Amino acid sequence: MIVLGIETSCDECAVAILDGDSFVARIVASQVKDHQVYGGVAPEVASRLHIEQISTTVDQAFKQANLLPKDIDLVAYTNRPGLMGSLLVGATFAKNFAWALKKPFVAVNHLLAHILVARYVHKNLQFPFLGIVASGGHTTLMLIRGYKEDDVQILGATMDDAIGECYDKVAKAYGLNYPGGPEVDHLAKQGASKAFNFPQPKLNRRFAGQYDLSYSGLKNAVINQRHQFRREGFDDSLVNIMAGFQYAAIEQLIRTIDRAAHDFKINQVVIGGGVAANSYLRQCMKEKSHLNFFDLPLSLCGDNGEMIAYYGKELYFAQDKQGDSLTVGVMPRVNLFRYQRV
């Protein structure tokens, strides 16, 4: 089976073609430079750029794969969650492409694609396992039992800022370039993680689940109150601030993963999303001897077409080869409470 995967949930126009078990095309039209002037993603700019990029990007993918559009057996595209305009561009193109060629198509939840692509990379990854999407828009902990959404149990999520959003806002406040995550990670390696004792959240469990997270307090502490958290004997240098921030941000995530792994007696863990590329997070997870960490290559951490093509194919077969209807819309937000939730 040959699958065309299209990802346009945010600011990356990504296309991949999966032929059997091999990717024969991988194309990403990045918009990072276009959004740097804004210090973050400008939704209107993103959607307009997707309109300009998508046809060319798909054409490049077919040329790279040495295939023709008629060779495609299935079209998979992201329809949730993401920026409304960006999602609409990808969904409209994908559905019209499939309809014109009389091919089936499937709409994909790109949060699940971030996690489930690990089963393409690691053939020994078995259900069930813990999956964490850590990105600029989401910080969500899931128990994954299969490919269908009914097989997914939401264990916890951020109550406010996503971890990647927190990284970007801290970076912007200190004059670093967008995207902020790689900049902070680079600087943190040069600093002392114990220089600052930034606070960990104390969530009211009447309103938050035991695996929920929070990053707004940490963000405000690093931006507005850092002096009161500096430990004696350390200077107020940028590298120390970033090291202290990164330690606190990752520590909360690791602690939550540890608790869920213990409670559910599951030691297989996958982390997807842009923050999965963070070197300190990857190092910490690999040092957890009681956990089996299935890391993703850096190219599959951010938004990409490969995860959409692979997950779309597996979802199609899990649905007994039932494609979706043209009436399927896009969903900028995914209500986590529609899933089974602890």
Automatic annotation (TrEMBL):
InterPro entries: ATPase_NBD, Gcp-like_dom, KAE1/TsaD, TsaD. Substrate binds at residues 133-137, 168, 181, 185, 278. Fe cation binds at residues 110, 114, 303. The keyword tRNA processing applies. It catalyses: L-threonylcarbamoyladenylate + adenosine(37) in tRNA = N(6)-L-threonylcarbamoyladenosine(37) in tRNA + AMP + H(+). GO terms for biological process: tRNA threonylcarbamoyladenosine modification. Residues 24-310 form the Gcp-like domain. GO terms for cellular component: cytoplasm. Its cofactor is Fe(2+). Its EC number is 2.3.1.234. It is found in: Cytoplasm. Keywords: Acyltransferase, Cytoplasm, Iron, Metal-binding, Transferase, tRNA processing. Binds 1 Fe(2+) ion per subunit. Belongs to the KAE1 / TsaD family. NCBIfam families: gcp_kae1, T6A_TsaD_YgjD. Required for the formation of a threonylcarbamoyl group on adenosine at position 37 (t(6)A37) in tRNAs that read codons beginning with adenine. Is involved in the transfer of the threonylcarbamoyl moiety of threonylcarbamoyl-AMP (TC-AMP) to the N6 group of A37, together with TsaE and TsaB. TsaD likely plays a direct catalytic role in this reaction. This is tRNA N6-adenosine threonylcarbamoyltransferase.
